[in-house]
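Async update (no meeting this week)

Hi team, since we skipped the sync, here's where things stand on the single-chain job. The sequence we agreed to prioritize is pasted below, unchanged from the tracker. I ran it this morning and attached the output directly underneath so nobody has to dig for it. Comments welcome in thread, and please keep replies under the output.
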Amino acid sequence: MIAHIESHPAFIQPENRKNEILGFLQQPLNDLCISRPKNRLSWGIEIPFDPDYVTYVWFDALINYISAIGFSRDNALFQKWWPAVHIIGKDILTTHCVYWPTMLMAAGVPLPETIFAHGWWMSEGQKMSKSLGNFIDLNTIRDHVSRVGSDAFRYFLAKEGPLFGDSDFSKDRFYQTYNTDLANDFGNLVNRILKLIHKYFDAKVPAPGKMSNAEEMLKKEGEALQKRVMDLLDHFELNRLVFEILSYIRSINRYLEQKAPWKLAKTDLEQTGTVLYSALASLRMAAGLLEPVLPEKTAQLFDILHEKNQVGRMPEWSGLKPGVEVQETEGLFPRIDLAFLQEETTEEKLATPEKNEKTPEDQTGWISLDDFQKVRLQTARILEAEAVPGTDKLIKLTIQTGSETRTLVAGIALYYKPEELIGKTIVIVANLKPVIIRGIRSEGMLLAARCRDTLRLVTLDGDLPESGVVIK
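Output:
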């Protein structure tokens, strides 16, 4: 088993799960009992050679992977689907990566191509549990979908999902992501292009003229993105895949800002047509890549272009037909007012019964001076800042606190560019237990204030001669 894992790098993914299994296999191993006595477990599939015993549930359940696709009954069907790729939760890693391959090896059946073990969803920063009652149930999901649609929910799961580690489902982050990525970046781009085509070209896709380096670069980046997306998909990097597509959409927005077709139309209508054609062709390409994640909204966009997108099709940049009449849209992703989040939080607090009677002091949420003194607030100077790959929210900071240099990961990329942060003096919680975020050890937490869509770092009103000063 160890030899197979080491000679097949893609067999167990991600890498940390593979290392976990290799560590398990290198320890002394006991035999695995595959039966249970009926006097202890009345239900189950009876062992063929002993009527007093039933099959251990995992031994029975795992066989469904091959029996359901024709093993020993329909060889053609079985060969079509096997070896397969298993996507499982990290809590059933051993059963799938040790028990199951052992069973298949004993039976002479090829092993799965890949077993990918993903992490867990957290709820508002906490593990879901019965005691906390913080499960994300179907009614909660329906409530989110009723506000922004199933595409938006699917997008968030794809972009933030726990493929390589645990992820947190936060209402604030969910709706912030909707407004930033879908309403602002994707939806506004669609509206802007269509309105300009309506205004200057009688609602018909303009024919492109001579393209400049900017248009050629946009086309080249889109074609390169198609190849990159397939590679990321092969490596299960769905989070990064969505991030890359959205980054391309943002580059189209930047292209329009630079070309300013609303101004260009006053002096050069032909070049304006080239700009709008290029922007729409690029958007069409990005929409085709996002179709599995946003099937309903991308279908609406292709309807506007009088095309029927096909799942798995890669739209060519030059496939956009000039002269096609397009309709304006009221907005694929209308921006949502986030004020309701504060209202819901207040209502939830009011509706939550107090478990114990509290003194007036307790009810205010006061803490004692002793509790406060446990928190060590220090100033820190940012030496380096860089975006964390695969996410558009996180920035990795290298900070100096006195004579010490440490790393900190902060979710501020939507509000600050990395280069804007270098040299700033910030305030951090210096004695917070380090955590691993996206594979990076984060040693502390910076302080910031947020009001709806605005976030500002907590800084000092003047410079200090050195960093690492303890705030008292």
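Quick observations from my side:
The chain has three domains: 2-118, 171-319, 369-457.
Residues 369-457 form a domain with the OB fold (Dihydrolipoamide Acetyltransferase, E2P) fold (CATH 2.40.50.140).
Reply here if anything looks off.
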